[in-house]
Amino acid sequence: MHDIRAIRENPELYENCWAAKGLSGRVGEILDLDAKLRASQTALQAAQAERNEASKKIGQAKAKKDEAEATRLMAHVEALKKTLEEQGELEREIGDLLRQTLAALPNLPAADVPPGEDEADNVEVRRWGEPFAIAAPKDHVDLGERLGRLDFEAAARMSGARFAVLKGELARLERALGQFMLDLQTREHGYLEVSPPLLVRDEAVYGTGQLPKFAEDLFRTTDGRWLIPTAEVSLTNLVREQITPEEQLPLRLTALTPCFRSEAGASGRDTRGMIRQHQFYKVELVSITGPEQSEAEHERMVGCAEAVLKALELPFRTMLLCVGDMGFSARKTYDLEVWIPSEGRYREISSCSNCGDFQARRMDARTKTAGEKGARFVHTLNGSGLAVGRTLVALMENYQDEGGRIAIPQALQPYVPGLTHIGGPA
């Protein structure tokens, strides 16, 4: 959500930032609505003042036994009631339209976000590890199906496309990955583990920016709740409508949850395999900070996500997203992209975003310094640490051998005692 006062004071900034996202002309529309709303509020206040003054004079006229004047004033007050109703309704309509317009507009990018329209304009910040030298690498679908541990046909019979059934050692490895990621983030990076709701109300998904613009990307239940597309929704909303004392910040929260996405905008993309599914597990990282700490916390969060890939010895690169490729709520985003041998390229496995006060305004999440009167909006940050399914894909493909076996990285072996490979003895 955006501060209308800030738009009034610096319309050129907002116009330029939204124009860079293909949303030219929105500032003029907003300021026009704002002017109409303020005019309606002024007219309403004037009518209210006139009614109050007339009501006061009715009493005075009656005290003087001037019934003619009292009758005239009462008729005037009655006429003003209709004016008040009309102006009140107009104010509500314009106010709702202004709020809806503001709610549908994305966050402004930080000053150091590179310009650009799409992923081709993203900037590589650093790279870690060398891609594995694998002759004629098989993709994870072939590997899993040949091992009898990955079944897309059974999943399709019961659920349709974009689902998978994992069996045996592969299901065990998926579970181990989630536990390993949680342990790393809680034991080494100081995140607090949370087990949050998977079903949330409108207010929660509105708060993090999925509603109203991205409703088609979500799954909704028959009672009007939403299945979370990421634990970011549940974790960030822990501070909604709260004033968190500044001395308690930063809050660092993590959760391993199923995530549910309709992939409405992904028709025809990544239809094979586990890269893009309707249901998957993910370890989410969320930080709640004061405004002055969010940039440093963002860099720290990226490092916490990178640490998972380093521990698993999976080659990756870190990308700074351009203006046109950033998500709706983000002020600045880094993507981690892991090497996928069968595709011969890097694929996104984590996005870490600083949302500034954008989500906090939608949730009314504030912080307050001890001894000070005023409260201010917190900054919120979120990132994947990591998407378990995509990490499993990267692990299967990077750790395959010529015979189709999959080695277990050393960091994961304590989580799968006695298992060093999937597909036969070591």
Q: What is the terminal separation in angstroms?
A: 55 Å
Shape: elongated
**Helix-strand pattern, N to C?**
HHHHEHEHEHEEHEEHEEEHEEEHEEEHEE
Percent strand: 15-25%
Radius of gyration: 28 Å
Q: Please state the structural category.
A: alpha+beta
Structure description:
The chain is α+β, with helices and mostly antiparallel strands and 426 residues long. It is 40% helix and 20% strand. The protein contains 12 helices and 18 strands. It has helices at 4-9, 11-19, 26-63, 67-103, 140-146, 152-159, 168-188, 202-207, 232-236, 294-311, 358-363, 388-398; strands at 123-128, 150-151, 165-166, 192-193, 199-200, 219-220, 226-227, 243-245, 251-260, 279-289, 316-320, 332-340, 345-354, 366-368, 376-377, 379-387, 406-407, 421-422. The strands form 5 sheets. Strands 1-11-12-13-16-10-9-4 form an 8-stranded mixed beta sheet. A hairpin with a 5-residue loop joins strand 6 and strand 7 (226-227). Helix 3 packs antiparallel against helix 4 (67-103) and helix 7 crosses helix 12. The radius of gyration is 28 Å and the shape is elongated. It starts with a helix and ends with a strand. The model has no long low-confidence stretch (mean pLDDT 93).
